[in-house]
């Protein structure tokens, strides 16, 4: 429950800094496996239908074991951002969301 409270407090602070709608960058990291980028693209599109998957920036780790995706998404509300963040952070292929 403390983690949930911390996350909610973080979104409170973030909301105070943002003016919606906003173009919001997210960095998603996971193991470099087949289908990772497509799975993340599909998930982002579920929450932000106007997202253009062609704009995803990909970067492999120095050892090539991990892949970092940077997406910039138009976010209209705090609820949309929270829902997208939670969906990404709980996805089984995702290690970290920043």
Give an overview of the whole structure.
- This protein is an alpha+beta fold and 98 residues long.
- The chain is 41% helix and 29% strand.
- It is built from three helices and four strands.
- The protein has a four-stranded antiparallel sheet.
- The longest helix has 16 residues.
Oligomeric state of the chains present here? single chain
Q: Beta-strand level of the residues, as a percent range?
A: 25-35%
The whole-number mean of residue pLDDT values reads 92
Form type:
globular
Question: Any chance you could write out the topology, listing elements then pairs?
Answer:
Blueprint: H1 2-17, E1 22-31, H2 36-47, E2 57-60, E3 66-75, H3 78-89, E4 94-97
Antiparallel strand pairs: 1-3, 1-4, 2-3
Helix pairs in contact: 2-3
Which features characterize this protein?
single chain; 98 residues; alpha+beta; 4-stranded antiparallel beta sheet; 3 helices; 4 strands; globular
Concise overview:
The chain is of the alpha+beta class and 98 residues long. Helix content is 41%, strand content 29%.
């Amino acid at each position: 429950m403390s983690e949930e409270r911390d996350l909610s407090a973080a979104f409170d602070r973030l909301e105070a800094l943002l003016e919606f709608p906003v173009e919001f960058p997210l960095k998603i990291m996971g193991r470099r496996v087949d289908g990772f980028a497509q799975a993340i693209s599909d998930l982002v599109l579920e929450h932000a239908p106007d997202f253009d998957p062609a704009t995803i920036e990909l970067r492999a780790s120095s050892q090539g074991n991990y892949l970092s995706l940077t997406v910039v998404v138009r976010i209209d509300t705090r609820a949309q951002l929270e829902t997208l963040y939670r969906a990404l952070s709980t996805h089984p292929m995702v290690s970290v969301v920043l």
